Amino acid sequence: MSEQKNTRSLILIAAGIFLSAFALRLIYLRQYRQSPYWDLLFLDTESHQRMAERILSGIGLGNRSYFRSPAYLYLLAGLEYLGQRSLWAPRIFQSLLGSLSASLAGLFAYRLTGKRWAMMISGLMVAGFWLSVYFDGELLITTSATFLNLLALYLLSFKAEKGRGMVAWSGIVSGLAIIFRPNFMLFSAAIFIWWLCRKRYREALILLLFTALPVFPITLRNLSVAGDFVLVSSQDGINFWMGNAPGADGRMVVLPLFRREVDGEFLNRMKPDPWFREDVWLVSTYLAEKESGHPVKEGEVSRFWIRETLRAVEDSPGLWLKLFWKKCYFLVDRTTVGNDRDLEYHRDQIPILRLLGKFHLGLILPFALLGIVLSLRDKKSRYLVLYVLVYGFSIALFFVISRYRMKLFPELAVLAGIALSRSADWARNKKWARLLAGFLLLAFFSWLANARLLSWNDRPLRSSMRFNLGMAMIQKGRFAEAVPVLEDTIAIKPSYPEAQLALANALALTGRAEESIRHYQEALFYDPDFADADYNFGITLLHLNRPNQAYDHLLRAHQLKPELFPAPEQVLEKFR
Question: Which of 170, 322, 362, 460 is 20 to 30 Å from 79 by CA-CA measure?
Fold first, then answer.
């Protein structure tokens, strides 16, 4: 009877956590819907939406290997089909999934501590953390991958009690986690090797086989369609380069080349490709092809950038090691870093996020770090600690941004619950020496998480994210709204040719062509070979009835990229 009451009590607490999380997410979505940012999709969100539309229209994702992990693209397409192309359907689904993650984190904390109050604290941390709420409303892989990673880990923790059947289920969920975010593969490999070392051969084989089940169809598709051995997706190569190349700072994503510097013939040839609008894909493919001297497959591109990165590491191992330790520190630093959107700027626009934002990562991380220390010798927590260490390592191999770090957050909340539980036990049992040691460690971790010990220039990243927002507004035809955003962009970083050009275009399209001239000139000052700026400047000058000046800029654009821009005579003919 008492066991039934306990089960009923756990179900009620889990349901309460779920409902609290879902209510917060619904409030956020309602406020988000009333903001001007609801349908402004750019970079990864825009790419995911575009690929989902291709799937729904029957065009598919082309005949190359997948550049991005495909599982989320098909999930998004299915959700949009059910929701009749509405953005509400995927956002509601992800809010449900995020709420389930909160409940699951609570159950995990109870499993490891045996305390209902620890379950509530860990679950509510995930339910009410502002970044969790935010990411559950974005068309990103984050929510799905976070839930699947946590579920695989939770199932794995039952292995000792439930036997090999639970290993099989954990393997299937691990395979699903991998096809959403391949980083999880490193943790699965660590478990596999661990079991082999401990001579648990049958369990290791079961895990391997069932993990491979969801992955194999994607690998087979890449082989059969593209004749290319890519396990899931090929983005890892260029991401590895961006996170470790000379000049990398551990957070800022810098491409090896600007899109404007890509050869016009290559742009023209690649225009039909589904990934054409992604600068990362375009630039990485262009440079790999240029180096090899022939068209390259996705797997070749990935391997090219891995080789380039390893060569750079070999040339300066000391600098790379310093960068790696810097990224390890960034994992435990409270700083919020986005690479699609300025997260703190967005938070400040939405009332519920402003309120939830008072509970920041600097308050949670110290308890989570203490939980890691206290769990190192606990057999029940070993998979949890191993996951945090291995998955954290996989992030530090690339670059540390909030979107990647969020896949650790439910597990960190569970570890925080463990730290609070152990501290309460010490206080109740009057183990003052341990309590004092725990307090001192907590104070040290609080300083570590909040001190911001390493300087970091966030101006380039902030200007880039404001630029992305302005461009999204332009693409939606909201030119007047784009102007102040782009003015803010160049106030942060004046030497930004693309932003100067975008501002000039927005001004011209709002009837302020005379004002746009200065920004066209600025764009060409910072990059004299910017063909797009010359062409758009020429068109604007034609509208201002200055054909002689326009001719010079149109000619320059044609000379730089004849495959993309027509001869000036052809353009002038249309304006007569």
Answer: 170
